[in-house]
Design brief:
single chain, alpha/beta, TIM Barrel, Rossmann fold, four-stranded antiparallel sheet, 23 strands, 28% helix, 16% strand, globular
Length: 710
């Protein structure tokens, strides 16, 4: 049993919260709706700051384990691993909270309410914050979001370990520069088919404690004041019982950006009346005046504050320490040897092998005298961590990981090669001022490892980036600056060139796919990322990551960035051939599938169970990501969609038979009114190591097994 199932305990917390709130004045209640909530000493209420972050580790509050960025963890396609990460994060969170409470430190980023995960759909690769998400697919995002939440919140029958938050509800994915005034217009079909499923899963399966509204409007209404989103769908349809918070200073946008209200009083009344309980910001102080002017009922404020205090009581902060098992977690677990080892494991599992011509990888250090390492991300700590990050006690860059691995046995020569996005390293230099150094290294080396890409100073949230890229969105999909020119120089020397890309989004690697020997997508791999990438490059680990996003060939094939229609977007709706498809990733071994069959008679309304045999036909142990896709046989239906995932470890030559259950909703299609339906035309199910599309089959040399439901 866990707290979500313990209805008696939940009722107790709510009744205690009601009794406490009943003793407060209007002014005291309003103050409790601010993210920086003051103490009420006469009632024994301590001050509390609701704002904390844990996107991929405890963030912004000192030393903690910095796991790979969320998009990298998504590439593992591993539900169980994501829950383990969430559990590790919440263990460190409780340890830090216990330490901070003893020191009477209640500042920002010191609470137990974490505004993670981000389950928005990465619908356009230009969006700067896309690397905070679990990718472009609603099913994958749902599965990983639910399990990360379960890891954060725990399974105790009396208390939440921490409180997770699914954000940003509900339709939000750029442009960053317009988010405070933008109206994301979506059809009911796209809403139900793409933008809502992950949130629904987080609420109904993950029992997430918090929902955060988005900055933008959706269909004309600000998300943090939308009756349809926050009351009709979230509470009435899905049965959400936690609390809702605004994004930071988003209520101010109602009248300054969206122009749907005239002033602060009208804005706070709109947000509160339509289901927003907590204000990240200070504008809710106007609620006292709004109540006196009759713009919002005080009873609604009572309801909001009860929701907030119920959450705090679920965390056990009003109970004795000896009652709460999480109060016993010692600070020594933070940044421990075990945490660092687990971080390295997660990072290794997130790495995707995109190309491996003539088995260039793995490298054998015994056959090498000199390795040339070039590129602006080779020794860039910022390229390890993404955004919303914590502080590691040690960062291992790719250069350091390679140096540590080969030791004194192999010479490692290094050049930054070029600036991350400018055409010269220093202002007074001429363009391409490191090219001679690059040539010198390439001439001396047996193999060249080029580490290119971006970091969170280029792609990220508005206000976090400070460069020519503006507000964090990408102008195109090319490698920034003159990185491509450096790769062309390296290729001239007729040595094996291995490209390692560190970034949080899809990159147009068309020339690189055609000309380079191997390509590795490393994402933002976390503080241990350099060790993990070295493990992959030298065969200490077998790559198992799969792409959670489509890699396109050019920006020109994308729809307009501001168009929120899903037509032509992501693998589910695109018509053209991808460079690297969603779900794609190579291994150092090969896997064959056989004997796919239904277990019993398939009944889509009850769910369908599939059996398949997977064999490792190569010479190296490996882990396969078994993927099931469903294609509705209707002309206007989406492309085959991911609906099932299983990870299977196989030693060389080993085979296993596994089963996979596809639930009834795997076969839903949505009509123009957003209503789910089953179709009479039938379905095709594919099961294999990739999508069933022609490009995936060509890249992998494998065709998935197909099953028909007519």
């Amino acid at each position: 049993m866990e707290l979500n199932e313990n209805r008696e305990k939940l009722r107790e917390y709510r009744e205690r919260a009601k009794a406490l709130v009943a003793q407060m004045t209007l002014e005291e209640k309003v103050e409790q709706t601010l993210h920086r909530s003051p103490a009420i000493e006469r009632l024994g209420v301590k001050k509390y700051n609701w704002w904390n972050e844990a996107l991929h580790g405890v963030a912004r509050a000192g030393t903690a384990t910095v796991f790979p960025q969320a998009i990298g963890m998504a590439a593992t396609f591993d539900e169980e691993l994501l829950e383990k990460v969430g559990d590790a994060v919440s263990t460190e969170a409780r340890a830090k909270f216990n330490m901070q409470q003893r020191g009477k430190d209640t500042d920002i980023y010191k609470g137990l309410t974490f505004w993670a995960p981000n389950v928005n759909i990465f619908r356009d690769p230009r969006w700067g914050r896309g690397h905070e998400t679990f990718g472009e697919d609603p099913y994958l995002t749902s599965r990983l979001g639910v399990r990360y939440i379960q890891g954060l919140q725990g399974h105790d029958e009396n208390y939440l370990k921490t409180a997770a938050c699914a954000k940003h509800f509900a339709v939000h994915s750029g442009p960053e520069s317009l988010r405070h005034e933008f109206d994301a217009v979506v059809t009911k079909q796209d809403m139900r088919e793409t933008y809502l499923p992950a949130f629904r899963a987080c609420v109904q399966e993950g029992h997430v404690e918090t929902i955060m509204g988005a900055y933008n409007r959706t269909n004309g209404v600000p998300c943090c004041g939308s009756h349809e989103l926050l009351i009709d769908i979230l509470r009435n349809e899905w049965g959400f019982e936690g609390h809702v918070t605004s994004d930071c200073w988003a209520i101010r946008d109602f009248y300054e950006g969206h122009k749907v209200t005239s002033n602060a009083q009208e804005s706070v009344a709109m947000a509160m009346a339509n289901g927003c309980d907590l204000n990240c910001g200070v504008l809710f102080t106007y609620l006292v005046q709004a109540v006196k002017e009759g713009l919002v009922e005080e009873s609604r404020i009572d309801e909001a504050v009860v929701n907030l205090f119920t959450s705090r009581m679920k965390l056990g902060v009003f109970d004795k320490n000896e009652d709460n098992p999480f109060d016993k977690i010692p600070y020594s677990v933070v940044d421990s040897k075990e945490m660092r080892a687990f971080n390295r494991e997660v990072s290794t599992k997130s790495i995707v092998l995109l190309k491996n011509e003539n088995n260039t990888l793995p490298l054998d250090k015994k056959k090498l005298r000199t390795i040339g390492v070039i590129g602006p991300n080779a020794d860039n700590r910022k390229a390890l961590v993404g955004n919303y990050e914590g502080t590691a006690s040690r960062y291992v860059t790719v250069l350091e990981g390679i140096q540590d691995y080969v030791g004194d046995e192999v010479r490692v020569m290094y050049s930054m090669g070029c600036h991350l996005y400018k055409d010269r390293m220093t202002r007074l230099a001429e363009a391409n001022d490191r090219s001679a150094e690059v040539r010198g290294i390439c001439e001396e080396s047996d193999v060249i490892i080029a580490v290119m890409g971006m970091d969170a100073t280029l792609e990220g949230e508005q206000g976090d980036t400070g460069n020519e890229y503006g507000c964090g969105d990408k102008p195109d999909l090319r490698l920034p600056g003159i990185q491509h020119d450096i790769l062309r120089i390296a290729k001239e020397y007729q040595k094996p060139v291995i490209l390692v890309v560190l970034c949080g989004s899809a990159t147009a690697l068309t020339w690189e796919q055609e000309h380079l020997d191997a390509i590795v997508q490393g994402w933002y791999p976390g503080a241990q990322g350099g060790k993990a990438i070295a493990d992959i490059l030298f065969g200490e680990a077998n790559p198992q990551g799969k792409l959670p996003v489509t890699f396109y060939r050019t920006t020109e094939e994308l729809p307009d960035f501001e168009d929120y229609s899903m037509k032509g977007r992501t693998y589910r709706y695109m018509k053209q051939e991808a460079l690297y498809p969603f779900g794609y990733g190579l291994s150092y071994t090969t896997f064959d599938y056989s004997n796919a069959a239904f277990v019993g008679a398939p009944d889509i309304r009850q769910g369908v169970e599939i059996r398949v045999t997977v064999k490792n036909t190569g010479a190296m142990d490996g882990t396969e990501t078994v993927q099931a896709y469903v294609k509705a046989k209707r002309e206007d239906a989406p492309n085959a969609q991911l609906k099932g995932i299983r990870k299977v470890d196989l030693k060389a030559g080993e085979e296993k038979t596994l089963t996979m259950k596809l639930p009834p909703e795997a076969f839903w299609l949505f009509d123009e009114n957003g209503v789910a339906e089953y179709i009479a035309e039938g379905y095709e199910i594919s099961i294999g190591g990739s999508q069933p599309d022609a490009r995936s089959c060509a890249l992998t040399g494998r065709n998935p097994q197909l099953l028909q439901i007519n």
